[in-house]
Amino acid sequence: MALTKLDQLYRAVILDHSKNPRRRGVLDKATTKIELKNPTCGDVIQVQLAVEDNIITDVRFDGSGCTISMSSASMMTEAILGKSVEDALMLADEFSGVVQGGEAEHKHELGDAMMLSGVSKFPARIKCATLSWKALEKALETDGTGVDGQLKHD
Amino acid sequence: MTVPYAELKKDFKILDQHVNDEPLVYLDNAATTQKPEAVLKAVEAYYHTSNANVHRGVHTLAERATVQYEGSREKVRRFINAPDTAEVLFTRGTTTSLNWVARSLGDMVVEAGDDIVISYMEHHSNIIPWQQLAKRKGANLKYIELTDEGMLDMADLKAKITENTKIVSLTHVSNVLGVVNPIREITDYVHEKGGIMVVDGAQAVPHMPVDVQALDADFYAFSGHKMMAPTGIGVLYGKRKWLEKMEPLEFGGEMIDFVDLQDSTWKELPWKFEAGTPNIAGAIGLGAAIDYLETIGMSGIMDHEQNLVAYLMPKLEEIDGLTLFGPKKASDRTGVIAFNIDGVHPHDVATAMDMEGVAVRAGHHCAQPLMTYLNQPATARASFYLYNTVADADKFVEALKATKEFFLHGLD
Lengths: 154, 412
Known about the structure:
- In chain A, 39% of the residues lie in helices and 19% in strands.
- Chain A is α+β, with helices and mostly antiparallel strands and 154 residues long.
- In chain A, strands 3-2-1-4 form a 4-stranded mixed β-sheet, covered by helices on one side.
- In chain A, helix 3 runs parallel beside helix 6 (126-141) and helix 4 packs antiparallel against helix 6.
- The longest helix of chain A has 16 residues, at 126-141.
- The termini of chain A are far apart.
- Chain B is α/β, with parallel strands linked by helices.
- In chain B, 40% of the residues lie in helices and 17% in strands.
- Chain B has 14 helices and 17 strands.
- Chain B has helices at residues 5-8, 37-49, 60-80, 94-109, 128-137, 154-160, 183-192, 212-215, 240-243, 280-296, 298-317, 346-355, 368-374, 390-409, and strands spanning 18-19, 22-23, 25-26, 88-91, 115-119, 140-144, 165-171, 196-200, 219-223, 234-238, 256-259, 264-266, 322-325, 336-341, 358-359, 361-363, 379-383.
- In chain B, helix 5 (128-137) links the parallel strand 5 and strand 6 (140-144).
- Classes of the chains: A alpha+beta (154), B alpha/beta (412).
- Chains A and B meet through helix 1 and helix 3 of A and helix 12 and helix 14 of B.
């Protein structure tokens, strides 16, 4: 049956991250907070970062969304913990390419997030995968002011 | 006449295809419907034989185009039993129709402190125009509560609609819950209190007989594309007594009577509202869609959908962990079924069902206040139409069970 194709999208690792998300919750010592919405589907994500001396020393996410967006957020927190702001932004950019069928240079750093490369075969779901990473980019680029926003549909 | 509904699929080429290697079962009819060959041929024939601008020019093609365009208006009038074609305005769709009413009528009759009453089951297009009107005027926007089954709470309705209410705008049929509202009863109550009744008929006109005189609403809006016509054409029916007083929202060609240097006068109804070259082909397509629907019969279409829902409900209620929204009784609703599988996000449900060839919608269905009210971030939704069959319903149930199995236990 055609659901076998779904395995490309929903690997065990992804389902595990969705059911047992890493670093979900509130970060008391956050230096940057952001909430990003995907207005077309109602997904909401909050990302909170503690940045000290340009290093991401802690991160939490919270929100509501589908398996893909929640597992991606969970994987994102694993990938960026301990990274410099520049490296985190580089990974976010690379991840955005991976879910659209691109190659990754830093597969090891992206870690479990590489499992989401199968999303590229499901164009309607790419934005689910990138929501948390876009939130991360926006939080870091606004230099800690963490304005709330919407996922742009470009 | 017994309509062979299973045969109707042949009229829709798009339904005869495989999606993700499975035969397509299209269950997103509340979003938009497929177009029968008859509609596509009517649009093509218009462009092949009669394309010209309407209401001007004396040449033959212009005359043909005008006759066909106005002929469609007459078909719409008859279809909804409006008293006069002067009260049938062509618009871009329900959204435009409701915006026109909120802008033109709303700005004319609503003042600071007045109440505008809508409900929690409204589509965004029947919320935001009123929100904006309330903000412009300093009026109050009030929401009628729903019962546990998602029907209008009539006691709350009677409490919220008062002598201070200027406009009440309600959907005839909910695009999420499928519930059919008692429009005539409500309209009588609104009129008794001195208010104006506006109805969003986008989910009603395609699925059941609608008689605007029997409903007695002051305005009634609907879209062509949800009833097998092309996109970009819709209708606003309004009572002449209001339309006469209302100012047009757009100005330009096609809507003027006489243009002076400093002022102008407008054409008579309905043309004073239709500035610019209209969607002629769309209107002709809508006329052809009405012909198609009338051949089948609106009462029969409603029965067909309710039969499918009555067939489906017991099968769906048997599925553990499936939450259904809206009324339980098939006779209280149309072929719209919103649902969630416990522990599985509706987007994941929709992707999985798409892999099985079943097209359903997932999301907030342009009804965020309703989602908040139901305490759901989103739902999945299957919506049936005349070309859907018992086999489609079976496939839907099968795909739903397989989807639930996949997410809760994985593939064996």
